[in-house]
Write a structure and sequence with these properties.
alpha/beta; Rossmann fold; four-stranded parallel β-sheet; about 35% helix
């Protein structure tokens, strides 16, 4: 089985979780990332340490399960751009799955999976989950949203007449 993992920066979940598990299952993994050198370095260190150190240098117990088997094929690609991601995947052998564990890459990954006829999340839902104005509009359309929500242009203040208290949030991200 061939699968493509879409990732940005290296994470312990990928390095010490997914990749060793995929190796144990005999999966052929293609890792598409905008940070190929960082991933290659972290994987080399993980192999050398036999899975006992995280990328942050802390020791962990992986119970001897950090068997990386065949090294994933790491491919550089702008994973934040769905067009570049689709182009990067197009050059690979036929895949059985495309996925990402990154919240920031869900919409691009879903679009790529859909493009290649693979199962996946609905890209619209992924986009709405990361974009608060889109989610508020969708919730209002379904009748589930009872909160007033407006978009404010950079440099502008809230429009007059809004009830208080106000909660200001960026359109994309987690800060408030």
């Amino acid at each position: 089985m061939r699968l493509c993992l879409v990732a940005a920066k290296p994470t312990d979940a990928v390095t010490y979780g997914f990749l060793p598990a995929a190796a144990r299952l005999g999966l052929e993994v293609f890792l598409l990332t905008d940070q190929p050198n960082a991933h290659a370095g972290v994987l080399a260190r993980a192999r050398a340490d036999h899975g006992t150190r995280t990328e942050h240098g802390t020791r962990t117990d992986h119970g001897g399960r950090a068997d990386y088997g065949v090294q994933p094929r790491i491919i550089g690609c702008d994973v934040h751009d769905a067009r570049a991601l689709i182009g990067g995947i197009a050059g690979l052998p036929r895949l059985d799955a495309v996925f990402s564990n990154s919240d920031h890459l869900q919409a691009q990954t879903a679009l790529a999976a859909d493009y290649f006829g693979l199962p996946g999340k609905d890209w619209r839902s992924c986009l709405r989950a990361k974009n608060k104005p889109l989610m508020r509009r969708r919730l209002a359309e379904t009748g589930a949203e009872k909160v007033i929500a407006v978009e404010i242009a950079p440099g502008d203040g809230p429009p007059p007449g809004l009830p208080y208290p106000l909660v200001l949030k960026p359109a994309v991200g987690v800060a408030s």
